[in-house]
Structure formats: structure tokens, C-alpha cells
Amino acid sequence: MPYDPIELAKKTERMVVNGNRRKYFRFRGGRWYGGIATADCVGCNLRCVFCWSWYTRDRATSVGKFYSPRDVFHRLIRIVQRRGYRQVRISGGEPTIGKEHLIELLELFSDTSLIFILETNGILIGWDKSYARDLAKFTNIHVRVSIKGTNPEEFSRLTGANPEAFYLQLKALEHLLNEGVSVHPAIMLSFSKKEDYNNLLKELEEIDRSLVNEVEEEYVFLYPHVVKKLRKAKIWPRIAYTPDNIPPELI
User: How confident is the prediction for the chain on average, in pLDDT?
Assistant: First the structure.
């Protein structure tokens, strides 16, 4: 049965948030975005069949440790100073779960010259437009909204969620643009037909022409554990990459 990602977000928050502390399972540097310090959080409100971090997502009660915003800040700053990066992000899970924690973390980074890239599925921002208003207080943030598939049916097939939740992702883009937040859409296209992609581009254009010009095409990476999940779900991508064959333009 399809699930409600808003209700799943609330359930997940009870497992991965304790006051202003949030669960994370690692901190690392990486080559994405040309070099970035990353905090990988635990817990998500979607169950994508292609998720590379499904293990920490599905075992939220037993994986990771709780960290305060200041703990996360200092760990990322140490990576930045060691590697010479100019950007930081939260990845792995859904960073918008635990709003108090995220806002406090953004406040700490607001006094730096670093760019904070918020990678999100957009569900909670689309559901509550005040979230976008709170994010707009920070001038050094850029939001990457990762859209799962090109239409409600594909979204539901890939995530298991209610099909209508697909539109919360598009609402997130609208809310963020209305509040003046820097944002671009990333669309998972590994499973999509060209015609469906073109139809989604038309929907994005109705929100704002800039979104079409800034679309990031996203594709599945066939890590061994991802392959197992896809085969179990009997879903296979039209286009995908192996971890050692990632095109430079996707890095």
C-alpha cells in the first residue's frame, strides 16, 4: 500500500531527532560540486528503490549517533579547512526532517563565507511554505530539489509513496522561488521516457522559466547493494552508471 511521506517524516523524526540534535552516520569530503564537505544524516521520508543509503534509512533506530548543530558545524569546518573546500552539505538522508536542528546549523554557517547546499526531496518544503520562508533568511544557501521521476505514477513506482505527493516536490520549487531562495531541480531520469520528461519540463516552465534552464539530470549509480534492491523490486533503469564510470559532468 502507498504511504504518506508527510506521516513517514513525522514517524522518522521521532527516531532521528532528539531536541535540537539529529542523527548522522558519517562526515566526509568528496569530489561532488567540485569539492564539498558532507554530513550524511540518518532517516528519510521516501523509500526510493534506487537509494544508495537505504541501509541507514531503513535502520534509523540502530544506526548513527546524535549530534548537535554545533557538533556538525565543527566537524564540517575541520574537513573544509583540511581540504580547502568552499562548500558544505547534508546528504545521505532527508535533511529537512528536524527543522530546528537544520535552522540552527544554517545559522552557524551564516557567519562564514561557505556555500551551504541543501539537498532535499522537497516534500516538507512543498507541504509547509513557511519552511521556504525560514530558509530565505540565509543568503549563503542553495537548495537542490531532487524530483523522483517525471509524473505521479512514476514517482509512486519508484518511491512507494502516494502518487499525489509528487506535486509536493514541484510546490517546493514554487515556494522557494517565491521567497527568493536560490534553487534548482534535479530530476531522476534513469527510469523515464523522453515524452514524460518533456511534459515535466512544461510543468516546470509554468512555475518559472529559469527552472527549465537549470535542470540537473540525475541518474542511478549501480552500487552492488542498489542492484540488489532494484532486482528485488523488479525495476530496472533505462540509463545508469557504475560507480567507476561516472561521467565528469555528473561530478
Answer: 93
H or E stretch including 84?
none
Give the total residue count for the chain. Answer: 251
CB-based contacts of 109, cutoff 8 Å, min separation 6: 73, 88, 116, 138, 140
Give the residue from 97, 185, 96 showing the smallest Cα distance to 149: 185
* Separation CA 105–CA 186 (nearest Å): 24
Q: What is the tens place of the pLDDT at every residue in 135-155?
A: 999 999 999 999 999 999 999
Pair type for strands 87-91 and 36-41: parallel
Reported pTM: 0.92
The CATH H-level superfamily of 5-245 is Aldolase class I (3.20.20.70)
Cell numbers describing residue 141: 544557501
Amino acid identity at 7 = E
Element (H, E) at 101: helix 99-109
